[in-house]
Amino acid sequence: MSENFTTKRFSRSDSDRFLTGVCGGIAAYTGIDATIVRLIFVVFAFLGGGVFVYILAWLLMPAEHEQRSLLEQIIRNFQGKPSQN
C-alpha cells in the first residue's frame, strides 16, 4: 500500500498574516481558522502570557519560505557564521 504523506511544516505564514504570520502559521498547521487562533492569543494576552508566547513563537518559527528561524539567524550572525536560508 503506497500512501503519499505530505509533510506539514510548522512555520509563519507569508500569506495569512496580521502582524508576523504566527497565528496564520499555527492555523495552517492545525487546520483551525486563523481568526480563532488570533482570538485565543488575545485571550491569553489579557490573562498575562499571550504576548510572551507570541514573541517566542515569532522568534522560533521560521518564515514559510525560509529554513531557519529568526532566533537561529540572530545566533548565527552573532557567532559570525553565514545565515544561509
Automatic annotation (TrEMBL):
GO annotations of cellular component type: plasma membrane
Keywords, comma-separated and alphabetical: Cell membrane, Membrane, Transmembrane, Transmembrane helix
Entry annotated with the keyword Cell membrane: yes
Chain ranges passing through the membrane: 39-61
Residue intervals of the Phage shock protein PspC N-terminal domain: 8-64
Membrane topology value: Single-pass membrane protein
Major localization listed first in the record, in broad terms: membrane
Location within or outside the cell: Cell membrane
Coiled coil: none
Listed name of the protein: Phage shock protein PspC (Stress-responsive transcriptional regulator)
Organism: Nocardiopsis aegyptia
